[in-house]
Design a protein that fits this description.
Blueprint lengths: L9 H4 L5 E2 L1 H10 L3 E7 L6 H14 L4 E6 L5 H5 L22 E3 L6 E4 L5 H6 L3 H12 L4 E6 L12 H7 L2 E7 L5 H13 L4 E7 L6 H11 L5 H13 L5
Parallel strand pairs: 2-6, 2-7, 3-5, 3-6, 7-8
Antiparallel strand pairs: 1-8, 4-5
Amino acid sequence: MAKKTSKTTKSTQLQPTSFTEINRIHRQALSARHGSLVITSALGGEGVSTFAHIMALRSADNGQRTLLIDLNLRNANLSDSFHAERKIWGLADRKQGSSLADLIQPAASVPNLSFMAAPRDDESVQFLRDVQRAKLFLSNLESQFDQIIIDTTPVGALNRQNIDPVLLSAAASRAVVVFMAGVTPQDKIKRCIRLLEEAGTAIEGLLVNDYRNPSLQEELLKFADGIKRINPAFADWMRQKIQKSSFLS
């Protein structure tokens, strides 16, 4: 089934072509539907922040009023990428339904896209750990934006500084799970999905990140290097043929 910045991170190095089924996921989850979408994963380093950014850009490009929220408190790469100041959200002291405009900034040079940097205060983190309060928080934002896309921590990374992505997924309209093809253990993926389903999350799909999977061309070049000691001339000939092949490029 079924994302460059001033700071170099693993997630920002990933390219959009590293993800499979992006178009289908975007069409199914966002194109014709409004609401909030949580992006999460079983483990860290799976490309969640990058994918969340891509989905937000796609939605904004479609003319939808889009808000991208950084709630990945384990690694707030998006806030750094947008050069956004992390503020005290003060959610516990705000009246229900009150404006959050002071926490939202328009994305430079990207029409229809706004960004909300990760909170700096522990009180707001604690506030969002209650599923009903999280629902009210998202409902308030849904009245202002067509699409709200939320970058979260991995399901398996829980500590006092994080907001449980399972809880956020249950509070949101739907969720997408990202995993690294050939890297993320199947038992971790199954556990992640099970926890989300048990919480009542509407899982829109699974997104495969094949960034670390070698291409056929890379595998054949590796094979050619392996036989160079035995037959250097043939290995060089083989490398040239592989590199010139339009089928493998």
